[in-house]
């Protein structure tokens, strides 16, 4: 009996606890559901003791703050130091025509049979003197080499020539002596006719010997000296070849220079041996290398007479720039390389002297273009007309979005905001005072990209960019990163410097 009483008392206590817990939970749920409605109604029904116009400055402050935050997301502000550190260049977009092109490599080469020549000895002998050095301009009127003759046939021909000259003089003297006697009838005219016939034979023999002397390489000035002095020539001077003199008529240097010396004093040479090589670099070729798929482009260039753009690097003010030249296609090879599947084409390149120096009376020309020099060739493919062109570094591509950074002008915006704030309150907001350290601001302008190569982008002229509007011509991606940082709280308008 006592055990049953205890069990019933425990059940009663447990049931009471469960009921109390359920009631408490119901109250909590009811409070959570009806608390917002009750207090909202209370707040709405409470008497409004404040004039809704008592805080115009606060409302303006909040609106300005929201506008300012939104502005930070669409603009990038730079201090003067940041602007200089980025090295930004500002300029207006250029509207005009632009050629879409294919970039291929090229190199400067010599013109076969024209640029690389040789000077050979016309006689056999021993080199006695060398009057030029490598790199020197060829003196047109001065000898290049002096050779001591060892050609026996040439020496014998000289001797025969002098002998005929002597015989001719003797016959002429005898004719002169007999002329008065023949006229007086003391001597028969047969003797005079025999002497005249002998003179004609000597003259004919002299002409033959002269041809032999010229054929063996004896120059005209030495032949004339032999006739005048009656002394056998023991040395011979080798000068500029005749075809070089004719080609460079009127030009002291003619664009020719000594490339390589092949002999030295004391060296024995045979007739026809090369003494030096001569370079002619006043006109050169550019050898371009294109793929087989570019052949239709080359054929179209040749047919329509389009110019090929050659780009070369040059140093200017401690930095390198590019110089462009418009050149005409000369020819395209008629075969494709089996290994590389490339085809060669050639463009004629006019050269110019970049600098001239003189040392010990010798002149040295330094040409702008040199064989072996590398450059780039742009093959025209398609022309874009009346579109905007900018440097590649002026455009940012972010997925499907393409934009440039234009200078943001706050003059009108600041004037409107100042008028609004003055009307709303007499005390200006200190939180949004003018940013005294902001030097310049940029805003991204979305554009439509038509074409892009390694140095230029073509943008549709659809009114997004206006004439006279200044844009950043370089480091646009760095401005893009700065804008992202400022929008994320890493930058933006600062009202003080941290030192």
Automatic annotation (TrEMBL):
Keywords: Transport. Residues 45-74 are annotated as: Disordered. Signal peptide: none annotated. GO terms for biological process: copper ion export; plasma membrane copper ion transport. InterPro entries: MFP_Cation_Efflux. GO terms for cellular component: cell envelope. Residues 47-74 have a biased composition (Basic and acidic residues). It comes from the Bacteria. This is MchE protein.
